[in-house]
Amino acid sequence: MNLLYTEIEEDLRASVRAVLTDHCPPSAVLARLESDSSYDASLWELLASLGALGLHVPEEHGGQGASLRETAVVLEELGRFTAPVPFLGSAVLATTALVACESDLVASLASGTTVGALAVPLTTAPGSPFPATVSVEDGLLTGRVTSVVDAGAASLLVVPVEGPALYAVRADSPGVTVTEVVSLDMTRRIADVSLASTPGVVIASGDRATAAVQSALRVGAGLLASEQVGIAEACLEQTVRYVKERHQFGRAIGSFQAIKHRLADLWLELVCARATARHAADVLATGSADADVAVALAQSECSELAVRAAEETVQLHGGIGMTWEHPAHLSLKRAKVGQLALGTPGEHRRTLGRLVHLPMDIPSMGQT
Amino acid sequence: MNLLYTEIEEDLRASVRAVLTDHCPPSAVLARLESDSSYDASLWELLASLGALGLHVPEEHGGQGASLRETAVVLEELGRFTAPVPFLGSAVLATTALVACESDLVASLASGTTVGALAVPLTTAPGSPFPATVSVEDGLLTGRVTSVVDAGAASLLVVPVEGPALYAVRADSPGVTVTEVVSLDMTRRIADVSLASTPGVVIASGDRATAAVQSALRVGAGLLASEQVGIAEACLEQTVRYVKERHQFGRAIGSFQAIKHRLADLWLELVCARATARHAADVLATGSADADVAVALAQSECSELAVRAAEETVQLHGGIGMTWEHPAHLSLKRAKVGQLALGTPGEHRRTLGRLVHLPMDIPSMGQT
Amino acid sequence: MSHSAHIGDRVRELLAAHDPGSTDRLEFLRARFDAGLAWVHYPVGLGGLAAPRELQRVVDAELEEAGAPDNDPRRIGIGLGMAAPTVLTYGTEEQKNRFLRPLWTGEEVWCQLFSEPGAGSDLAALGTRAVRDGDDWIVTGQKVWTSSAHSARWAILLARTDPELPKHQGITYFVCDMSAPGVEVRPLRQITGEAEFNEVFLTDVRIPDAHRLGEVGEGWKVARTTLMNERVAIGGAAIPREGGMIGIVAGTWRERPELRTPELHARLVKLWARAEALRLTGVRLRQQLAAGGPGPEGSGMKLAFAKLAQDISGFEVELMAEEGLRYDDWTLRRPDIVDFTGRGPGYRYLRAKGNSIEGGTSEILRNIIAERVLGLPTEPRSDAGPWKDLPR
Amino acid sequence: MSHSAHIGDRVRELLAAHDPGSTDRLEFLRARFDAGLAWVHYPVGLGGLAAPRELQRVVDAELEEAGAPDNDPRRIGIGLGMAAPTVLTYGTEEQKNRFLRPLWTGEEVWCQLFSEPGAGSDLAALGTRAVRDGDDWIVTGQKVWTSSAHSARWAILLARTDPELPKHQGITYFVCDMSAPGVEVRPLRQITGEAEFNEVFLTDVRIPDAHRLGEVGEGWKVARTTLMNERVAIGGAAIPREGGMIGIVAGTWRERPELRTPELHARLVKLWARAEALRLTGVRLRQQLAAGGPGPEGSGMKLAFAKLAQDISGFEVELMAEEGLRYDDWTLRRPDIVDFTGRGPGYRYLRAKGNSIEGGTSEILRNIIAERVLGLPTEPRSDAGPWKDLPR
Questions:
Q1: pTM of the model
Q2: Does residue B297 fall inside a structural domain?
Q3: Quick one: pLDDT at residue C338?
Q4: Could you report the predicted ipTM of this complex, rounded to two decimals?
């Protein structure tokens, strides 16, 4: 078990951060909110050219043949910048599902030529029943899936279908309607997907389809923890910088002990959360039997940390942190939605309790 | 609804506080821990002479004919001093049960000539099933009740008996064994009570017995909140005093902002808790239908506050707060046991949820 | 004759002379002001009758019952709550006569130009300059967090008239004409998408010395009257059980069993208990005030309210699950009145973040409680020198 | 020949010459010290072989396997962890030769006389006076929080030799003979009922100047070596999942279904998650240290551990319900070794309160993190003047 960052990972981080620093400063992300295009297509191409979109895809399927540990590092950086790219939907969820099915389609996702999305509600937790709200008849798919992350950017939809089966559906196929909804997280949007007698290609069925969706959800939840570490880290750094600069009462406000202690506590929570996120990434990469525990732990700890860090950032920036023109709200919204994404902290803790044999069944429950 | 202290109540408080200041300073309470007599009999007599033991007992039964509001004020003061007197067991629990039964026996409790105890485990919450671990045969009682508060000081035991019924039992009757146990709260002790073919006098039976026990538990839990407000208030005052005096790094430690903010938060919690405790006392005194809600609210809020206040007191006193010779631990132990007494905060909140129609029943509960 | 009987007569006279059913709204309000029934504790001639303040409630109730229009107090809160008491206390006779009547009738809306980007919690560090020029002052600076600036005719303004003095000295208090040349108002958008507030840029704005309130250099003292009245206003009114945000969430819980989990249940009941405790605290505070007690508890109410609102609204987004992912509308709007509990869960969550910042941050309120209520020592001072030398 | 091979030979030679099965314990330990196998990174002649520190683990493992006695390190932790590195760094040749061998073998127990009633977090404010008298120093003062004082032969002692200087100057570091006249040890009882610590009263205690460590007035610098070693020791060893307090509570939960409620379940799982997160943080910290990283995370481990231990033990008392009302034993005892997780829930609850006080309060640790890790500014100083003029 290696909870540190390897040299290769640090190199990868440096490359990704350099691209994001140049192409994804807060001002650019804020400006995009006012534009019609939610996603930054040119940033997506740059990430593709770094090979960042297919790190955990086997080389024979057009990926880098690295592991989920490296993908997790990319997510940390994307979290730091609240980058408006469909990485979670395409490079994590859809890609992991396709890798699990050993589908050739993954190559175009890994290369960035295709953006994919896994057609499940973003709130679906690992361990949930197979989410089959789409039915199939004569090879044509019909049904509706709400709140699909990054579906608005996707040209390939990976759709769980009753059976169970997993289908690939081109977003420009007949009968497909993708309706962007107004998302609380403005830099990671969701959309409702409707299919009406839409042609699709089956890529897995039976247990294999179930396993592929579970794998995607587990990996998604586990790796989202790394993004949340990135969010929290950026919030803490930004806040520390601000309280050193901001003077009130003739002193930097960061010299007031109450603020110092709060930031020390936040730092400590970040240190602990990072260990859980690294652990989850490592365990997912090595395929350990402890993966479900590691994911539930990391996701519950890190998603709460990210919210707390973003909330402290707003508070300690005072009024300026409440303004649209300051990027604090980008992190706040990403963090708050992250709390709901792929299982709430409460759901993950409930799973954790079951996995580590801390049962909740109580004889007297019915009375209350 | 009057949430303030009346002038009469403030006068009563002043009298009680004067007695306690003279006869129950921390040094005396600490010294008593090393002695054989857990309870301070002379302090008990002084409280009796103030009429403080029968405030909510009707005048025709030898009491003051005041109300539970006044008794609550006495409890605040006893909490401030962690006074080693059997007030909760005798003047609250046993007295309330006897008042509910309109039993003449209450007169001797109100006058202080007899110390009573209600033979239920101290952890029994209002709303619990009638606690009948004692059976009756041919008018003789047999059974065992564990963790009875103040039983070690009592000469009169008020015993719930299967039936249901409520019996009065003299502690010196044949077959009675009262075994003091080592209590976490050193100034309010518990004892296990055994009865073996012990004679007793029935004082209520059927619904009346059930109602009397429920009344005692409800009043006990509601008024314990006032004691906990007193504990928290004394802890806060003592800590504020200490941090003003204690100098480190050339400053009073109370000038450090982190400490100031923590104490401000604690003060605010105390302000809110006091409102709930006064509300509970007022509602219990006036017999409103809202009593169960008021008690559950006050007990859950105040018992947690008292623990937090006592814990902060230990922490902010540093090493000295960890020593036996400093009275902080008296409050800590009283507060921590208070969290378990007459229902934990969790139990009270569960009750509260039921009472205010926030149900917990969830279809999917069985799965977890 | 008692105040109360006298006032009853005045109300009846007003209603007799100006039938609410047929009188123009503004005409009625002006007549009400002139009858001394605007704020009865104000002096005679300035909308009042020098009567006890609590009689106002009787007047309001009687007029409401008679179907009389009110002056839409939420729309002109800053004028009523902050500007008016300050004008009353520090204004010249001329100023009082000029400003109070249209302020009260709502003909002239007021706003407040106090906070600056560099002077938030430390308001006294403000740097907007006012330089004397004959009978005028020339004012330059930037103000922020100004609600109603775009609809206001007048502003109460703090400006620095002597940077050589320590920061609390050298400030002067003005009434600024918002239609004067050099006043530029820009909406300030918040994280909710709305622009409740404005930035106000002042560039060589001329203010006649006749619009100064209080003496030159006494602005901080004058401002304290204004701010004290703001704090009182925040104390808030009586609410029923489950009033406010908790009621919304409790309602959702009851109606939507599919959202429930045991963990959420435990958290909800805890929040419910805190909300009810805080409500009772408010009841107790009002009883203390009515009994004439000083009630230091007031300083804590805003602090506790902010934390509770944030915790409840954060919980609500979690409770809503998939719906929590959505937002109702990001369109830039400039609301006249802010309703914390209006709109959706996402809005409530974001808006509540401001509760611990606006009108005194929670950090400042904790300092106030620690020092003024608990008597803890102040920090060593770092800002005693001349304003111009302070680090910023 | 590599260090490691050489050391392997030494171990075999030691075991050959002193069969652990038949050799007297103390004789074996002395022989081990003389063979340089006590602490291999110490110099040759002082129990070491000037070898890399990590080889010690190999030696310990081999000797343990051969059934050799150890020096009961928990009983002599202050000597090994604090006194020894300080003597090694600052001691004269004579001092090193005199003190280190019996320290390591446990023949002479050491204690620490640093903290005072008036100098806890602010240790440098200490007021115990040492006045020069010929070849001796005469020491008077009161020390506190001294574990092992009643069984110790020697103490490391900080005393003030010049009150005219600022507090960090004017301190000198001594080795104090605990059997000297004027040294009085009184047990200091804690809220658990136990007396883990002592108060030590020093009245005109004579310490020869030969027992001074480091220069006169350099005591603070010397003490930093001591305290740095204390902090490292607190980092702690690897523990398995559910090691420590959480394992006890989890075990109770599994065995006692009648204690369960949904609220307690949610809290328990949260605590379990925090415990596991902190355990992983410790694993990561050790990996960082092994990789040579500076690992500022270390400063936080104690802080997090204290909070977690307090939260778990507070939860445990609640979970135990009626059993939580009881305590195992209030009898005054003086334990040689403290086991935080030993005894009952009440003991664990009370003992854990000390975790955030002893060895650096959580408040001080937060300051350290804020200033040294996050680089936040220090508070304005109030203690720069001569020690004698400081408010106290």
A1: 0.95
A2: yes
A3: 78
A4: 0.95
